[in-house]
Amino acid sequence: MPTTPTISIHIETLPDGPSFPMIQIPGGSFWMGDDDGEIFWSPKPAHQVKLDHFLMGQYLVTQELWEAVMGETLLALKALIDQLRQFPGMKHKFFLKSLIIN
Fold first, then answer.
1. According to the model, what pLDDT value does residue 27 have?
2. Angle at Cα 90 formed by Cα 70 and Cα 40, nearest 5°?
């Protein structure tokens, strides 16, 4: 009989900010990419990616959490979304790096 995986939830608290639950995602490996060119945006060549375990927020980012991490209101979010559509990988990476708790 298969066993049910255990879900590990961590409660993180930002200094002078909100607390929020994060779920531990187990590490593993998978294949990424496309050798045949069938998917135009896929990295080439296909290669194996290995990840250590990591934490992911249990819920969507709230306005309170965004403001605590980024120091700006979500009123700037519409402009940010427009920027991300033009320059993927920029500001959301800064958000994720800012969220890392040592």
1. 92
2. 145
CA distance 36 to 63: 42
Neighbours of 74 (CB within 10 A): 14
State phi, psi for 94 to the nearest 5 degrees: -65, -40
Q: Are 62 and 18 in contact (CB under 8 A)?
A: yes
- Backbone torsion region of residue 6, taken as left when φ is above 0, otherwise alpha when ψ lies between -120 and 50, otherwise beta: beta
- What string of DSSP letters covers 20-80? EEEEEEPPEEEEE--SSS-STTS-SS-EEEEE--EEEESSPPPHHHHHHHHSS-GGGHHHH
Q: What is the DSSP letter of 82?
A: H
Model confidence pTM above 0.70: no
